[in-house]
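dumping the sequnces here before i forget
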Amino acid sequence: IEEAAAEQVKNNILVEDARTGLSVDALKRAISNNLFYVQGKYPEIATRNDYFMAISYAVRDRMLQRWTSSVRQYISGKNKIVSYLSAEYLLGPHLANNLINLDIYSQMEQAVKELGFSLDWLIDKEVEPGLGNGGLGRLAACYMDSLASLEVPAIGYGIRYQFGIFEQAISDGWQVEDTDNWLRRGNPWEIARREISYDVKLGGHVQRYIDEKGKLINNWIPGWVVKGVAYDTPILGYKVNTANTLRLWKSEAPRTFDFQSFNAGEYSNAVNQKIICENISKVLYPNDEQIEGKKLRLQQQYFFVSCSLQDMINIHLRSGDKIENFYEKFVVQLNDTHPSIGIAEMMRLLLDVHRMEWDDAWKVTTKTFAYTNHTLLPEALETWDLELFASVLPRHLDIIYEINKRFLVDVTLKFFGNHQKIDSLSLIGEGRRKYIKMANLASVGSFAINGVASLHTELLKKTVLKDWYEFSPEKFSNKTNGVTPRRWMVLSNPQLTKLITSKIGDTWIKHLEELKGLEKYAEDPEFQQAWMEVKLEQKKKLTRKIHGTLGMIVNPESLFDIQVKRIHEYKRQHLNVLHIITLYNRIKRNPDIDIVPRTFIFAGKSAPGYRKAKLIIKLINAVGKVVNNDPDVKDRLKVVFYPNYNVTNAQKIYPAADLSEQISTAGKEASGTGNMKLSLNGALTVGTLDGANVEIRECVGEENFFLFGLTADEVEKTKSEGYRPWEYYKNNKYLREVIDQINDGYFSQLDQLIFKELTDSLLYDDQFMVLADYQSYVEIQDKIDEAFRDKSNWARMSILNTARMGKFSSDRSIREYCNEIWKVESVPVELIDPSKTS
Ligand code: C3B
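..and the predicted 3d for all of it:
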C-alpha cells in the first residue's frame, strides 16, 4: 500500500482522491459516495446489489486511469496492436479478478469489512458474462488477461450478446435450459461508447457498372443496414499499468432507416425493423463444436467482423497513416473460423471503400490475418450453403469467387492435374448443393495457421489441413494453449497461493515456470501435510457448496474424482459412468470389499439440441440416484451432477479435485484447458494421449500421470481394420454386465427404452471407442485406488504436478504468439495524470 501511495505522489496524483485513492479510508469513502451518488441509496435501504454496484464502480474508477493511458499510448504511438477476433469470450466475474490485478484485494476486503459486510458476499453477487460456450471462449478470456499482463497492446473484438450461454437446471435428471439474462441488474464494467458505431450492410444485390474513368465499380445495394455500437470493458493486466480493451458490438437499427419508414407513415414497420436489427446480437448460439448453418449466425459473424475491421481501419487512418500500411498497425488473429469472413470483408473494404487495386488489397489482407484452428471434428468445420451465403453477403460471394479463381491458378501450377488436391483446396465445395468452406477461406487469407497443442497441430497437418500443409508448409506452427494463473490459482485458490508463496515468493504468478522451485519440497513431510490440508479445506468448501445447491452430503475425505467440461460424446463422460457402475457392481457382489471411497463430480452443459449428450446427463443422474441411495454402498460412492457449469462454479470446483478426468478419444480433443487448471491445482490426471494431455504428461512425468487407452494412431488403425464394439461387449463379462444393467432398466425403474439410443450406439457403432478403452480405463482406475491409499506418495505426486505446470501459463502461449506470429512487443504504459488533462 505504501509503495502504491508513494507511486501516486510521484505521479502527482492526490493520494486520497475519491476516485483513485487506494487506502482503506479512500476506498470506504468511494463506496459510500457511489452508493449515494450512483445508486441513489443510503445504507438502510441499499440492497446487496446496490453495494455490489457501488464497490464495482469504485474499482472501475481505479482502472480508468490505466485504461485511458493505455488507449492514448496505443493510438498515438507507433506500436503494433494485436486484434483478437472471437465470437465468444467466457470472461467470468470481473470484481475479484480486477481487485487482484489492481493489487488492492486486501485493502478492499478491509474497507468492506469496516462498512459491515464481507467482500466474499459481494463477490458472490456478481452475475458472470457467459458470452461463450466452453474452451474456445475461455481461452480468449485467458489470452486477454495475458496480453494485458505482458503489456502487449491489444483489442479483443466480439459480440455483446444480450443473452449469453443458457442457465442449466436439472429436472428429474434431465437438463433444462433457462435464458441467461445477465444484464438485468446492469453491468458496471462496461462503458457504452455510443459515438463509436458503424453501419453494416446485409442482403440485397450488387450493381456493376463502368465509371467515367473506365473502372469497374461494384456497388453493393443492401437489403438492409444494421448499426453496431461499441461497448467497452477494460481488461487489466496483473500489477502493471496496462489496461486493454474488450470491445463488444451491440446491434441496433440505424436512425436513417427508421426515418424512412416513419416518414412513409409505416410506424409498425419501423418498429419491426428495429426488432430485426436488435436480433443480431440477441443471443449466443449454444452449440459447441457442432455447426448450425443458420442465417442469423452468419449475420452475427459478419456483423461483428465488419464493425471491428471498420474500427481498426478508422483507428489506423486517424493516426495519419496510409491504408497500405494497415498490417503494420494491426495484426488480426482469427479465433477459429467464426470470424473468417473477415478476410473477404477486408478485401471489400480495401477494394470498394478505399479503392485499392486487387493485388495491393490482397497483399495487405494476407499480411494482416492469422488463423487458429481449434478442432478436428468434421461436424465443427464451418461451411455455408452458397445460396444462403449469397442472400446475406452477395458482394462477398463475388470476392470469394475471385480469390478462389486466382488461388486455383497457383494450385494448378503446383499440383498440375491433381484434381483431388484442387477440389480439396477450393474455397467452394460441390456436393448436392454448393457451399463455402470457411477453413479454406481462413487458410488462404492468413499468413499463419496454428493448432492449439502439439498433437493437434501434427494431426491437422495430416488430416483436415493436409493439403494446405503441402501447399504452404511455412504457414504452420503449433501454439499450445495455456491458462491464466491469476484467475485459476490466485483468485480461485488463495490458500494454495499462500502456501506456495511462503516457500518460493510470489514472482511465480507472472513467471509460472518458477513453480519448479516447489519440487524440492515434494518429499518434505511437513510441506506434504500443509499441502494436503489446503486440499482438504478446498474439498470441504465444495462439500458445503454441494450441500447448499443439491442438499447432498458428501465426504470430504473421499477421493474427489472430477470431470467438468461440455458434455460431448467424444469427451466420453459415459466411459466414466461405466466405471462407476463397475465399482458399484463390485460392492454389490461383495458388500465388504475394501475400496477407496470416491465422490464422482460431473458438471457441464449439453447443446440443447444434442440428444445423445442430454441422454448422457440423464444417465449420470440415473446412476447417481441408485448408487447414492443403495445402503450396501454405505456412502463409499457418491455421484454428483453439479448444475450450471460456468466460470463461477469452475473456480469452486478445480481447487477441490484429487483426480482430473481427461478421457477423450485420442485424436479428438484439440487441446483441453481444464486439464491444465486441474493439474495446476494439484489434481492428478487420468487421461488418454490426447490434446495437451500429451504435453502435460511429459512435463509432470509419466510416473505422476495415469495413462490409459488407445493412442490416436491406434484408434485410426482399429477403425480401419473394422472395429466391432460388440466383440468387446461379448468378451468382457463385467462390461457386459454394466451395459445389460443400463439396458434392462436397472437405473431407470425398469424402463428399457430410455437409454437404448445410447447403448445401441455403443454396441453397434461406438465412434468414440468407449468399449475399446473400457478395460484399460478400469485397470488404471484400480491403480488410482491403490495410489490414493498412500497419502504421502499422493501428496508428493500432487505437489510435483503443480510444480511442473509452468509451461501451461497463457503468458507462455501469448509470448509465443507475439514472437513467432504477431511480431509485436510489449509497450509499458505511462500513466496520464487525470488532473492535468485539459
Ligand atoms: C475447444 C476445443 O474443444 C478444446 O480442445 C480446446 O482446448 C479449446 O477449444 C481451446 O483451444 N473448442 C471449443 O470450445 N469450441 C469449438 N467450436 C472448437 C474447439
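Residues 36 and 42 are 6 Å apart (CA to CA).
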